[in-house]
Write a structure and sequence with these properties.
By secondary structure, the chain is α/β, with parallel strands linked by helices. About 55% of the residues lie in helices and about 10% in strands. Strand 7, helix 5 and strand 8 form a beta-alpha-beta unit. This is Dynamin-related protein 5A.
Length: about 600
Amino acid sequence: MENLISLVNKIQRACTALGDHGDQSALPTLWDSLPAIAVVGGQSSGKSSVLESIVGKDFLPRGSGIVTRRPLVLQLHKIDQGREYAEFLHLPRKRFTDFAAVRKEISDETDRETGRSKQISSVPIHLSIYSPNVVNLTLVDLPGLTKVAVEGQPDSIVQDIENMVRSYIEKPNCIILAISPANQDLATSDAIKISREVDPKGERTLGVLTKIDLMDKGTDAVDILEGKSYRLQFPWVGVVNRSQADINKNVDMIAARRREREYFANSPEYKHLAHRMGSEHLAKMLSKHLETVIKSRIPGIQSLITKTIAELEAELTRLGKPIATDAGGKLYAIMEICRIFDQIYKEHLDGVRTGGDKIYIVFDNQLPAALKRLQFDKHLSMENVRKLISEADGYQPHLIAPEQGYRRLIESSLVTIRGPAEAAVDAVHAILKDLAHKAISETMELKQYPSLRVEVSNAACESLERMRDESKKATLKLVDMECSYLTVDFFRKLPQDIEKGGNPTHSIFDRYNDSYLRRIGTTVLSYVNMVCATLRNSIPKSIVYCQVREAKRSLLDYFFAELGKMEPKQLSSLLNEDPAVMERRSSLAKRLELYRSAQAEIDTVAWSK
């Protein structure tokens, strides 16, 4: 289930990048629905040491007063091998292998948001750490609770921090990691106090007891750790962090963990609890608990995302796309809307949307059927062949073969193909025109601007008509070319091919008897059928080249050229946008992007049932 934590990590990063920090606003928030572990504690509770012990690295800023002034979303990723490194969301392509540099960047990024003052901000910093020594886990480190403002801070800072912490932990999807020092009275613990207010039954609170090794002699924390003095739904975990002296001496974190294990294993008071004590156990327990909570919340998150996407899309559809106030912006907006229409139109032709298949039906059914209806065999009846041969001979009968008669018979047959060719051009034109109207109706942006819709429709139809005219010229030229020049090789083979009608013993002077004329008709019909088969393949190519291909490439080119000549007032007449909705639309678009990204991330995760 480790991919569940990774899933929430990705969605949290997307929330931060797109401005969803869980703040109160008029926009729906996804951040609040995501399970998260919020680390809560007073300034002297050892909160930073617990986090560093879980990570196994020194990386958090230290100092007097309020050091953590922005929420830190700490995402831990376990890797199989390799060098440990860290990445910040605001520095996406930079890897930190020096964790002292990580500490400095946290401080610097805090100052970038809050300035050099000691103000706080609710905008989180995202830090991802990749290491073979961590478990998959996400924690939100919140500013430490304090009772007194330090120099340079407003008096309201105490309440501001409490309000920020409360805004996180009061959400039902938040798991509270309450850090309390064992060497102070638990009743005065800042973390327990505020946790009890938002989670009175302790159902979402995980208690961590620090500084157990610093308790007064003769005292211990057994009653707390066993849940007798203050019961929570989940067992308390005790930890022993490095002392300030250890920190100053740069004591290795791995060695500190080993000393922690030895402390609990060798202490008479705690040895019976040693199996569930220490920072390593805490990290594993938190990871497992977070996975369980995420898995239980996923169906609800999916429902929320689906519902919110529909609501955002509906409102954005109602508001329409934003339009700039300057002439250049308006021109760009018109071009962008036209591009969307053009893309939809191409999708119809390419089969992504319906309708383009009708063009193939014209080529595969309508054109062949029209050619078949020409009935060349009737045109080449005995009477018609005799008539055309005689007319072609004129006053001097042909000597060897009626070449002029052949030509007249062939030309008079082939010229009839012009009709089906023109009909195919017109049929494809009608389909292209119908698809243009359909694409216009499917372009949501055009519905917002009726004037632009009319102009685009007219421009598309005019372009299609020009393409139709060019296509007719090109297609009819194919027919005319077949009429103007006959394939000589076809006729050269005829006298030697007795099976195909050639009869070298036949008298050339019996040129008008039925057998001779029938053979001429059969030869011409065979040639016309050959040409017809050729044109059946070449006419669709001509139509696609002149109409379909051009419609995909340059449907609105003429309109774009005219747009460039328009005055600002003319552009404004095509667009009428209310600027009052622009800000709302922009915010909704960002939030919709976030929800769609989250939905895609969830859909790609295959979890165990």
